[in-house]
Amino acid sequence: MVKIAPSVLAADFVNLQRDIIGVAQAGADYLHIDVMDGVFVPNISIGIPVVKAIRQVTDMPLDVHLMIIKPIRFVAQFAQAGADLISFHLEADEPQQIQAAIDKVKSLGKKVGLSLKPNTPANALLPYLHDLDLILIMTVEPGFGGQAFMANQLEKIRSVAALIETAGTSCELSVDGGIDPTTAPLVRAAGANVLVAGSAIFGEPDRGAAIAALR
Ligand code: DX5
Ligand code: ZN
Question: Is 103 a catalytic residue?
């Protein structure tokens, strides 16, 4: 079954605990936490202390999405803060440093994901494929919630699904950006098995119904 990862970027930050417990009770599989540095993306969101605080109030697997340059500088601190899976961007550093960051996350006993911005082709993943627990395909330009889904990413999702199939790994294929009940069937048909959604879950009063609509 497809997994649902609510993105806390769209939660009510004043009532974060309430919103997190709500999506856990509504059957969410992962909690997606967007970290932005104002450099890799033109926005700043939340950081290490907030991940640590969230860790205190939920047992849900924490799927931390780093939209920061040179992620190797911070992966250990996010692991220490309680992340279960740490994803960062392939575009965020030189290839050697990306590989080093992957190795570091794994050495800390955490799962590792690599994310692709919309203009980055699927085959850029090839050098890293066998090391990854998750691939996160952005279906919007990263930086903001509530943007329109980019249908031109469907072909890339299909290509990445084929790469994973060929590699024969258990890597998950996640999509992030503009996922709602209309676009969810499209990305699932293309091969995605984890759906990140902010607005389509936290923007709805009934979180259980919102998650069910995505499944
Ligand atoms: C965007 C973030 C997303 C964002 C998705 O840079 O990575 O996780 O919260 O928000 P929606 O689902 O509203 O497009
Ligand atoms: Zn995200």
Answer: no
pTM (2 d.p.): 0.98
Q: Give CA angle at 39 (7, 71), nearest 5°.
A: 70
Helix 48-57 vs helix 16-25: angle between axes, to the nearest 10 degrees?
50
pLDDT on residue 143:
98
pLDDT tens by residue, 53-70: 999 999 999 999 999 999
Q: Does 43 sit in the ligand 1 pocket, CB within 6 Å?
A: no
R_g of the chain computed on alpha carbons: 16
User: Whole-angstrom Cα distance, residue 39 to residue 92?
Assistant: 10
Distance (angstroms) between ligand 1 centre and the Cα of 146 equals 7
Tokens 């939209």 — which residue? 67
Whether 19 is a known active-site residue: answer: no
Instruction: Please indicate whether residue 143, judged by its CB atom, sits closer than 6 Å to ligand 1.
Output: yes
Q: What is the pLDDT of residues 70-100, one digit of tens each?
A: 999 999 999 999 999 999 999 999 999 999 9
Given 29, 93, 133, 176, the catalytic residue: 176
Instruction: Give the CA angle between residues 31, 37, 42 to the nearest 5°.
Output: 105
d(CA 138, CA 196): 10
